[in-house]
Automatic annotation (TrEMBL):
Residues 30-242 form the Thioesterase domain. This is Thioesterase. PANTHER family: S-ACYL FATTY ACID SYNTHASE THIOESTERASE, MEDIUM CHAIN (PTHR11487:SF0), THIOESTERASE (PTHR11487). Gene3D superfamilies: alpha/beta hydrolase. SUPFAM superfamilies: alpha/beta-Hydrolases (SSF53474). InterPro entries: AB_hydrolase_fold (IPR029058), TEII (IPR012223), Thioesterase (IPR001031). It comes from Streptomyces spectabilis. Belongs to the thioesterase family. GO terms for biological process: lipid biosynthetic process. Residues 1-21 are annotated as: Disordered. Pfam families: Thioesterase.
Length: 267
């Protein structure tokens, strides 16, 4: 799905407000954040307060204030349109990209698209809870029936068993979740030269969708350094107490001065 020029919403519709927080650390880059499949920009609503940098959550169609817009089922179209919006909004100057799960794949492809258009590259790319792009054709979760899809999401930890409120929310989100999964599973990586920016890749101890070898495979996607972080939790560690070490690490990386050296080790 690619919107025509007449149908395309204003660039600002793509970006949610960062939420309350203190003034950003001087010299820190803007962090542009992409949600996971079925997710909304609200997962990042308090990140500016925790990180001390300007945070720009991306809000794709089909959710939040854009609920009435059809979600994308083609990842290339999504990437092209969000890249247009970033350029139109003037957001690709001194910035970093973060994405979790599907969001990591979108963040990587956006970085490639921006490079192809001659735009400045990100200061850093953070990928979380995601296997490397060439491994995305290995699953076909979008074809699951509704009951199987509910079970998968529950097993991954997005919904606690017996939580009626979260269960009702999931029920409303099933169509956009299925659309997002379709976009991911139809995606096919195209070989390109590695990105120039350094990367940090996060894996979670109990995440069956992004096991350590699949996350380690991101190393081939940068010509600079890659830091590997292994954190507690499961696939949705982004939403629970296990996100604390992630936020601490992101703050350290984003507010590092040019005089401070990047760690030479990985884990």
């Amino acid at each position: 799905m690619h919107l025509t020029e007449r149908q395309r919403p204003p660039a600002g519709d793509w970006f949610a407000g960062p939420g309350p927080g203190p003034d950003p650390v001087p010299g820190a880059p803007r962090l542009i954040c992409f949600p996971y499949a079925g997710g909304t920009a609200s997962v990042y609503r308090d990140w500016q307060a925790h990180l001390g940098v300007p945070v720009v959550p991306v809000q794709p169609p089909g959710r939040g204030p854009r609920l009435r817009e059809p979600p994308y089922t083609d990842l290339d179209a999504l990437v092209s349109d969000v890249t247009d919006a970033l350029l139109a909004a003037g957001l690709v100057h001194d910035y970093a990209l973060f994405g979790h799960s599907m969001g990591a794949l979108v963040a990587y492809e956006v970085a490639c698209a921006l490079r192809g258009r001659g735009a400045p590259g990100p200061r850093r790319l953070f990928v979380s809870g995601s296997r490397a792009p060439h491994l995305y054709a290995e699953r076909a979760d979008h074809a699951l029936g509704d009951e199987e899809l509910r079970r998968l999401v529950t097993d991954l930890g997005a919904v606690a068993p017996g939580d009626r409120v979260a269960g009702a929310y999931l029920e409303r989100r099933l169509p956009v979740l299925r659309a997002d999964l379709t976009a991911c599973e139809r995606y096919r990586w195209r070989p390109r030269r590695p990105l120039d920016c350094p990367m940090t890749a996060y894996s979670a101890v109990g995440d069956p969708l992004a096991p350590v070898p699949g996350v380690e495979a991101w190393r081939a996607y940068t010509g600079a350094s890659l830091l590997r972080r292994h954190v507690p939790g499961g696939h949705f560690f982004l939403n629970g107490p296990a996100r604390r070490p992630l936020l601490r690490d992101l703050r350290t990386e984003l507010t590092r001065t040019t005089e401070e050296k990047e760690p030479s080790w990985t884990y």
